Structure formats: structure tokens, C-alpha cells
TrEMBL record:
Pfam families: AAA_16, GerE
Domain of life assignment: Bacteria
PANTHER family according to UniProt: TESTICULAR SOLUBLE ADENYLYL CYCLASE, TRANSCRIPTIONAL ACTIVATOR DOMAIN
CDD domains found in the cross-reference section: LuxR_C_like
Keyword field: ATP-binding, Nucleotide-binding
Compositional bias segments (type: Pro residues): 399-414
InterPro entries named among the record's database cross-references: AAA_16, P-loop_NTPase, Sig_transdc_resp-reg_C-effctor, Tscrpt_reg_LuxR_C, WH-like_DNA-bd_sf
Domain HTH luxR-type: 812-877
Upper lineage: Bacteria, Bacillati, Actinomycetota, Actinomycetes, Kitasatosporales
Protein name from the UniProt record: HTH luxR-type domain-containing protein
Keyword flag Nucleotide-binding: yes
Species annotation: Streptomyces glaucus
């Protein structure tokens, strides 16, 4: 008997080895009459049940009698529940009735049932038997003992027990033997590992009937190679019936995450007690404790921790890392939400006791539990509400020590003393009104933004989730603003949605609108479906200035309706009172995207000043980061570096949220590149924390910076890969404005260098078309000219890809575009042998202007450098 492709389905793609082993066991059962025990193991969603169903169908086709039992946690304490299921599926009701009639009336029901089950397991059948048991680790002790223990020795005839379980086989055998030595005999382990990327692609394509490429890697990562999760994603793809190169990808990632969490929680509910205790400890504070402290926190001895850790890794709930970490950070929220109050209290008591150990770098219990991201509420777990990207990588719960090249500048003012933090914590333990308590929590969060940012985030979440009422509403809104300013848009959008839901009936709608604006702003950063009701994108009445600011920013990212953007953003910044800081930053960024540089920078300066007065360090740092990005875009790289230095003085680099670090890193790297300090830029992007998470829009900025470095290194292939991923992130959020990230123009250069001028021309034409529609064609041309000038100055020969004439819209090649009069003046002086500074003095213009005109001259005439330009001009004059 061999496995053929006819038996393969989308649910068991990539399982040929396991299916072959099962086929061999069934063959031995039929042909040799052997008795065996085999357990199919594998992590969450590995397809164990699918393999069992396949085996049952295969055995029936071979003439084998098949009994099936599905074990559940609910029936795990019912004696003989599993064997009873097997008996009911193998024997007709008449035979069961006859057995029951033959039992002495005085026999206890449990003993009578035990006798009937032993009859099932010991009676020689008239044909081979397959006992298929799903989730054997959830079987009741009596059934488990008979299936893998004493019953094994008494069986006669060809019987194959084929079971599934995520728990390691040795633990099942030990439990089945009830502490006694396991009887000798064959016991096979049939492992199911995670699917590879190729196998995941095969599964998705087989189930959807569509060719999938770009979506496969990210979906495979979130699904952890689980075929069950990938099948759920494939079903969502079929339901949506939309192209995967649009903003649908975040919805698919959210579906994968929801499916994985659902199966992981089901697995966790059936874990042995020691594994469940360790899982809860890891979910709560395992990420900030040393491994040797886990036994005390989980209330286990070291040997039990090792066994429990093996079980959790076999189930796929914990990764293979050292120290141990949950497979996905977001799963911590699900585990904690499933604990009872008594269990949480016990965990907190042990954590508080550990706090006194020497060298333990954690604060109060609230600090430790505050490192866990916002809770996912049951009302928000629907697929529509969870349409967000794979959970981002969690920031470390303590402040990492900066490396040699990440030493932060000295703070602008002394960091808050420990005594201030201690005093505020003591004040929180005293009796106080709710309003005073909220004020203390926010004050402590602002102090901890530098020293313990994760704990500070936890306090802000506490304000939003527990104190969202009419009396405290201004403070709640401020807390939401501060939380979003930290950069974790994913957590912010969930917590804001939760606070909004709680306050719907208690807080007037006018007061809720700024919170909706902050939720919309967070949703714009992360993508997916909004969790709070947003204003329509083209609404004439946003309802609140904060919503006007977010609407202006949304339209600006989409390069849509520049006139409306300017009006909305200017009105917001003209009267900023009562508008959250992050909404004001959004309005200022919208003005910068609309080429109102003066208005945008003035708005950012005002935000930085107000945030500093309010001790909102993260918001001030974000405003300064935006200033730095604008300075780099407008050719003032040195000013950009000064703004970045001011931003990191407000908030040291180690205290920036990991989801915002890529943007900070990208701004510094691009500023250094524009200054010609390429080696420093390379060191910046290689810092340990400068890792794009692949989900946050901030990652797009870092991908672009790395692509520019790749072009400088002459690696056009790598640059193109980075730029395409950058474009995917931006397209998923409908960010089309080239003044944000000119990724299409850079990709056009890469395509041109790789010998694809047609593709290069299409990309460049699309970039120009968007800029012209938006009304900033001149600003974009200047931006890209400065970028090209950087490459030229660094000695990198980057030929201009063929584009389209900006006025006529027709294709042209190098050398076909006439020079303007100012450009001709510069060209004549170059031919005369003058240097740039001399040309500037002769024409009465800045040296920088000379450089920009030269860049345009090189592009128009299709030459590289001054020597080629002079030779071209001499040849033309000799011919003329």
C-alpha cells in the first residue's frame, strides 16, 4: 500500500512522509495482523486531525473496522468516556445492549462500564481494528490507562491505536501507565512539523485556485507554518475575491492571527497543570525575568519546568529561543485574559515576592504586567474588527544599554530622580479620588517615559481601560494622546477602541470625537479596518478640529484634494486649543506634504514647545523627528541632524518604541547620506534595534534608506527588493504621495540599472503623474534632483531612467530636452573651466543653486560629470 497524490488534499499538503508511515502501519495491520500504538504529534494547527481523518478513510477502504473518539476537556473527567465513544462507533446498539443485559444488577455503574470497555479491548475481532483517537492527552484517565497501559498487554488480534496529541508521546505514555512502568511494545511517534514557504504556497494555491506570490512569506510567518491557519486564510481569500496587491493583505494577516490564537487557546486549555502554570508565567512577566527565576514564578521545581517547557515547545506555544519566549507576543494577552481572578492574584503575589531578589530589574507588579500590550476584548475579536497586521514585535520591557554607536546625546534636562518615581508610586497606594488617581497615573507615565517606558505605557492603558468616565474624560483623552505618541499604533488603536466602547453611553458624542480622531490616526499607521467610527474621508463636516487634522493627513498621504488639505490643516493649526498633540502633528505633516513648508514647520515648532511644557517627551520627540525628515527632504541635512539630536535629547534612543525606531533610524541614515557620510549611515541602519518589523508603516522609511545604501553600493537587485517591499507597505495603507517616500523613482533607477528601461519609465511616469495630480510636481522634481545629486557627488553613476516630458506628456530620451537660460549660463561657465563656487560668485547665486542646476543639466543632456558635459558642449559648438 502506497500513498498516491489522489489522497492528498489542501489540508494535508506537505505531509507525504507522515501519510506514508500511517499507510505502512495500516498495511501491517491488514497483512501481518500486528498490534501497534502510534501518536501523531505536532504544534498548533499542524493538521493532526486531518491526518487522522485520512487514516480512518484509508483503513475503511482497506476493510478495517474503524472506531473513532474525539476527546475534549469537558469529558476528560468522565470515566471511560473515550473508550465508550470507540465502542459506540464499532458495535451496533444491539450488541451493546446485550452486553449491558449480561451485567449483574448489583454491579456499580462505573465497574459495569469498565467491564464493557475491557470486552471491547480484549475480544478478538473478526477483522482488523483501527482505534482512532483525536487529542489523546484529553482522554479520561480510565480510558487512557486501558488504551496505552494495562489494556495494551491484554489485547489480542490485529488492533492499531492511532491517536493525535500536541503533548509529547512520553508524557502520554507515562500518564496512561498511571505511574507504573509502561508495558513493552511498539509505540510510534509521527511528528508533523511546520510547513515550509513552498508548501504553504502549494496549500494556499490548491485551496484558492489562485497564484499567490507576495502574500505567502508574511502569511506563513504569522501562521507559523500551520496548515489549519493557512486554510482559514485561504477561505478568507476566496470569500473576499479581491486582488492581493491592495490593502486586503492586512485583513488576511489579521485572519491568520485570529485563527492561530483560536487554536492556541484550545490547545492551552488541555495542557497539563505544570505546562499551563509555566505558560501563564511566561505570558505575564517571563520576558523580563531571568530563566532561573521561572520555577519560582510558576510555582514549580526545576525538573517540572524543563518538562513543561518541552510540552509548550512541542505544542508550538513557545519558540525554540533561549530564554524561552511565547511563539507570538500577542498571545500573552489571550493567556492572561483566560485566567481567573484567583489565578492572577496568586501570580501577582509570587511576582511581588520575586521583586526583592538582588539584581531583579523590575518594578512593582503593575510595572511587570504593564509590559503586556493592550487586552483584546471579546467584542473586538471578530474578523472585521481584527483586520490589522501580524502583531508587531514587542519592545523590551527594560531599557537596553546603548552600544558604542548608539550612545544617546545628553538629555536636554536631568532625568526624573528615582525619588520622584517612588513618591508617585507611594501616592498611588493612598486613598484618592478617581480624578486625582488618574492624574497621578498620567504624571507617573510621563516620568517613566524615559526610565521605564513599558511601565509608563501600562499606566496609560490603565487610565483608558478603567477610568473612561465623564469626570475624568479630559485626562483620558490626554492619556490616549500620550499613548499614541509613543509610536505603538497597534496597541493604541485597540485600547482607544475599548475606551470608546466603554464611554459611548456615558460621555457626550462631542467629547468622543477627538478620541475617534486619535483612533483613526492609529488605524492609518497600522492599516486594516477602523475599530472606532471614523468620519467619511470626503466629509464636508468632520465634526471636530481633531478630526479635521486627521482628515487632512489622510488626504495628504493619498495625494488627494490638496486645496482641501491646506484649508483643513491651516484651520487646525491656527486655533490648536483642545486638539490632541498627535492630531496637530498630523496637520503639520499634511502641510509639509502639500509643500507649505513654512506653515508645517511652524506647526511642528508649536507642538514641540507645548509638548515640552506638558512633559510629553514622546510627542515632542515626534515633532522634532518630523522636522528632521522635512529638513532632509528640502536639502538641509545638517539641520536635520540637529533636529534629530534635539529629539533624542528629549527622549533617549533606548526609550523610543521599537515600532518608531525604524523611522528615527531612517531619518538619521538619509541625513548622513545627504552629507556624504555613507559609512556612518551604514552603521546606523545596522544597529540592533533598527530592524523593520514588516508590518508598521515606519518600516517603509527604513526600507527606503537601506535601498539608497544598496544603490550606492551598486547592488541594484537588493535595492529593488527593498523598494518593492517598501511599496507594498505603503500601498497597503494607500500612501501614494511621493513627497513622503519617493520609492517609485528609486525603483525606476534600480530597474534601469538592471536593464529594464521600460519598467523604469512606467514607474517614473506614475510618480510624476501622482505629483502633478497632487499639485506639487515642482517640489517633487526638486526633491528627486537633490537625491540624484547625492548619488552623483558620491561617485555613483546612476543614469536617469527614461521618463515623460512633464509638459507634453510624451516620451523623451537623454539629450532631447533644451536647457533653460539659467542652466545655459551655468553650462557656459563650466565649459570655461570655472568651479562651482566661482560660478556662484559670477552669477550672484548660491553654490547650492549651481549644484542643482548642474544636476538638471546632466540629466537633460544625458552626461555624467563635468568632464563629459564640457566634452559634449565643445563637440556641439565645433559641429555648429
Amino acid at each position: 500500500m502506497t500513498v498516491t497524490p489522489a489522497y492528498a488534499s489542501a489540508r494535508i499538503v506537505g505531509r507525504d512522509t507522515t501519510l506514508g508511515a500511517v499507510d505502512a502501519l495500516i498495511g501491517g495491520l491488514v497483512e501481518n495482523g500486528t498490534a501497534d500504538l502510534a501518536v501523531v504529534t505536532g504544534p498548533v494547527g499542524a493538521g493532526r486531525s486531518a491526518v487522522l481523518d485520512w487514516a480512518a478513510a484509508r483503513a475503511r477502504a482497506a476493510g478495517v473496522a474503524v472506531g473513532v473518539a474525539r476527546c475534549t476537556a469537558r469529558e476528560s473527567r468522565v470515566p471511560y468516556a473515550t473508550v465508550t465513544q470507540l465502542m459506540a462507533s464499532l458495535w451496533p446498539a444491539s450488541r451493546i445492549g446485550a452486553l449491558a443485559a449480561g451485567i449483574d444488577a448489583d454491579t456499580e455503574p462505573t465497574a459495569a462500564l469498565a467491564g464493557m470497555c475491557d470486552t471491547l479491548l480484549t475480544t478478538t475481532p473478526d477483522r482488523p481494528v483501527l482505534l482512532a483517537v483525536d487529542d489523546l492527552h484529553l482522554a479520561d484517565p480510565s480510558s487512557l490507562d486501558r488504551l496505552v497501559g494495562s489494556g495494551r498487554a491484554a489485547r489480542r488480534g490485529p488492533v492499531l491505536v492511532l491517536a493525535t496529541s500536541p503533548v509529547p508521546l512520553r508524557r502520554i505514555l507515562a500518564a496512561g501507565a498511571a505511574g507504573a512502568p509502561v508495558p513493552p511494545g511498539p509505540a510510534h511517534r509521527l511528528p508533523l512539523g511546520p510547513l515550509t514557504a513552498d508548501q504553504a504556497r502549494e496549500l494556499l494555491q490548491a485551496r484558492t485556485g489562485r497564484t499567490l506570490e507576495t502574500a505567502v512569506p508574511v502569511l506563513t510567518e504569522v501562521a507559523a507554518g500551520s496548515p489549519a491557519v493557512l486554510c482559514a486564510v485561504a477561505d478568507r481569500i476566496t470569500t473576499l475575491d479581491r486582488p492581493l496587491d491592495t490593502d486586503v493583505l492586512p485583513e488576511l494577516v489579521a485572519a491568520a492571527r485570529t485563527a492561530w490564537s483560536h487554536r492556541a487557546l484550545a490547545t492551552a486549555r488541555g495542557l497539563p497543570d505544570d505546562a499551563a502554570a509555566l505558560l501563564r508565567a511566561l505570558a505575564a512577566v517571563g520576558h523580563v525575568l531571568d530563566p532561573h527565576q521561572l520555577p519560582a514564578l510558576a510555582h514549580l521545581d526545576a525538573a517540572a519546568v524543563d518538562a513543561a517547557l518541552d510540552t509548550l515547545r512541542a505544542c508550538g506555544l513557545v519558540g525554540e529561543t533561549e530564554p524561552p519566549r511565547l511563539r507570538h507576543p500577542w498571545f500573552a494577552d489571550d493567556v492572561l485574559a483566560g485566567m481567573t481572578r484567583t489565578e492572577r492574584d496568586a501570580l501577582q503575589a509570587r511576582a511581588a515576592a520575586l521583586r526583592g531578589e538582588p539584581g531583579l530589574r523590575i518594578g512593582t507588579v503593575a510595572d511587570m504586567l504593564g509590559a503586556v500590550t493592550g487586552l483584546v476584548r471579546p467584542w473586538a475579536v471578530s474578523d472585521a474588527a481584527t483586520a490589522a497586521t501580524p502583531r508587531p514585535r514587542r519592545a523590551p520591557a527594560h531599557t537596553p544599554r546603548p552600544g558604542p554607536d548608539t550612545t544617546p546625546p545628553a538629555p536636554a534636562r536631568p532625568a526624573p530622580a528615582d525619588v520622584t518615581t517612588t513618591a508617585l508610586r507611594h501616592a498611588l497606594r493612598e486613598a484618592a479620588t478617581e480624578t486625582d488617581r488618574v492624574a497621578l497615573l498620567i504624571r507617573l507615565a510621563t516620568v517613566e517615559a524615559v526610565t521605564a517606558p513599558q511601565a509608563g505605557d501600562g499606566r496609560l492603558r490603565q487610565v483608558l481601560l478603567r477610568h473612561a468616565g465623564p469626570e475624568t474624560w479630559p485626562a483620558v483623552l490626554h492619556a490616549a494622546d500620550l499613548l499614541l505618541s509613543r509610536g505603538d499604533a497597534e496597541t493604541a488603536r485597540w485600547v482607544i477602541a475599548d475606551a470608546h466602547q466603554r464611554a459611548l453611553t456615558a460621555v457626550p458624542d462631542d467629547h468622543l470625537r477627538p478620541l475617534r480622531a486619535l483612533g483613526r490616526l492609529a488605524q492609518g499607521e497600522k492599516g486594516g479596518l477602523p475599530l472606532v467610527a471614523p468620519a467619511p474621508v470626503h466629509s464636508d463636516h468632520p465634526g471636530h478640529p481633531a478630526q479635521s487634522a486627521v482628515l487632512a493627513w489622510t488626504l495628504a498621504t493619498r495625494a488627494d484634494d490638496r486645496t482641501r488639505v491646506l484649508g483643513l490643516a491651516r484651520s487646525v493649526l491656527a486655533e490648536p486649543a483642545g486638539i490632541p498633540l498627535m492630531c496637530r502633528i498630523a496637520a503639520a505633516r499634511a502641510l509639509l506634504c502639500a509643500d507649505d513648508v513654512t506653515g508645517g514647520l511652524a506647526g511642528l515648532d508649536a507642538v514641540a514647545a507645548d509638548a515640552t511644557r506638558a512633559d510629553a517627551r514622546a510627542a515632542a520627540a515626534q515633532a522634532l523627528l518630523c522636522r528632521a525628515e522635512a529638513a532632509v527632504r528640502h536639502g538641509r541635512a545638517e539641520d536635520g541632524l540637529r533636529d534629530l539630536s534635539a529629539a533624542t535629547r528629549n527622549l533617549p534612543p533606548a526609550s523610543w518604541h521599537t515600532l518608531l525606531v525604524p523611522r528615527l533610524t531612517a531619518a538619521e541614515a538619509l541625513a548622513l547620506i545627504r552629507c556624504g557620510r555613507v559609512e556612518e549611515a551604514r552603521r546606523v541602519v545596522d544597529r540592533p534595534r533598527a530592524v523593520p518589523d514588516g508590518a508598521s508603516v515606519a518600516s517603509g522609511f527604513l526600507l527606503y534608506a537601506r535601498a539608497e545604501l544598496a544603490l550606492i553600493d551598486g547592488d541594484a537587485t537588493r535595492a529593488l527588493l527593498l523598494l518593492e517591499e517598501c511599496g507594498r507597505l505603503l500601498r497597503a495603507r494607500r500612501w501614494r504621495n511621493p513627497l513622503l517616500i519617493p520609492w517609485r523613482s528609486a525603483a525606476a533607477v534600480a530597474h534601469h540599472l538592471l536593464g529594464a528601461p521600460g519598467t523604469a519609465a512606467e514607474l517614473l511616469a506614475e510618480e510624476r503623474r501622482v505629483a502633478e495630480h497632487w499639485g506639487t510636481a515642482a517640489a517633487f522634481a526638486a526633491l528627486w534632483a537633490r537625491t540624484e545629486e547625492t548619488f552623483t557627488r558620491l561617485g555613483v553613476g546612476l543614469p536617469r531612467p527614461p521618463g515623460r516630458d512633464e509638459t507634453a506628456g510624451t516620451p523623451h530620451g537623454p539629450g532631447d530636452e533644451a536647457l533653460t537660460a539659467p542652466e545655459q549660463d551655468v553650462a557656459d561657465l563650466v565649459l570655461a573651466g570655472l568651479a562651482n563656487r566661482e560660478i556662484a560668485g559670477r552669477l550672484g547665486i548660491a553654490t547650492r543653486t549651481v549644484e542643482l542646476r548642474l544636476t538638471r543639466i546632466y540629466r537633460k543632456l544625458g552626461v555624467k560629470g563635468r568632464a563629459a558635459l564640457a566634452a559634449r558642449l565643445r563637440a556641439e559648438r565645433e559641429d555648429g
